[in-house]
Design brief:
It is built from five helices and three strands; from the N terminus they run ααβαββαα. The protein is α+β, with helices and mostly antiparallel strands and 145 residues long.
Length: 145
């Protein structure tokens, strides 16, 4: 199922790129920032059958702390991350979560469930001037980890 979700996210005709990175605790395996500012690619399907996320059984706050603690050389988004929990996996969707400001006690501000094939386009739009907080209030999602 993880392979199919990655492939569907890649195949969105408006994106057609490997945006999602399956995180490991080894930052050397993560996409690295390039000096010229060009982007990196994430994890491409098919993935190794032995892959196991280090975040299985962990909380969203654990993921948030990993993101906040990563070296600046690691080229992953500092504000948004995706989670494939049990419910999302069954439906072929991805939960997109946003970190709170570091001064706020709660690490994760919100999560919203999106179809895999639309998830990368959705992420690309998160930097626009749309009122995402209003959208999230309408579509808030609670993860089942």
């Amino acid at each position: 199922t993880l392979n199919s979700v990655l492939q569907e996210a890649h195949d969105d005709p408006s994106v057609n790129n490997w945006w999602w990175y399956l995180a490991t605790l080894d930052n050397r395996a993560a996409p690295q920032r390039k000096p010229d500012g060009t982007g990196q690619i994430g994890t491409s399907a098919p993935i190794d059958p032995s892959f196991s996320s280090p975040f299985v059984g962990k909380s969203l706050e654990d993921v948030a702390r990993w993101l906040r603690g990563k070296p600046q050389s690691v080229d992953v988004d500092d504000r948004y991350f995706g989670v494939l929990d049990k419910q999302a996996e069954k439906s072929g969707k991805i939960a997109i979560c946003r970190l709170n400001d570091p001064k706020v006690e709660k690490e994760v501000a919100w999560c919203i469930l999106r179809e895999a094939d639309y998830s990368t386009l959705f992420l690309a739009g998160l930097d626009s001037d749309l009122d995402w907080n209003e959208l999230v209030q309408l579509q808030r999602y609670t993860l089942e980890l």
